[in-house]
Specification:
This protein is an all-alpha fold and about 90 residues long. The protein has helices at about 5-25, 35-50, 55-80. The two termini are about 25 Å apart. One of its GO terms (molecular function) is RNA nuclease activity.
Length: about 90
Amino acid sequence: MDDEMVQDAVAKCVEAIGEAAGQIVRLESRFPNLRLSDAYSARNRLSHGYHSVDHGIPWATAMKSIPPTVEVARLALAARGDSAGAP
């Protein structure tokens, strides 16, 4: 967290995940634990309000929220029988 480059990299990764979530938000009703609309909202906040972002928020998102979301995404892929695109 002390390195500005790391802060920017984490924010960019969270932003990229949010953009991808926006592309598949229609699946949220089938997999509510993915919280796709929340991810997309976070992406919008990072993209359009980057100058006023508390860098602790993307960091906490990357460390606490993304790992369980990845697990839910893997389960969703397995449920539809397609693990080829699993992260």
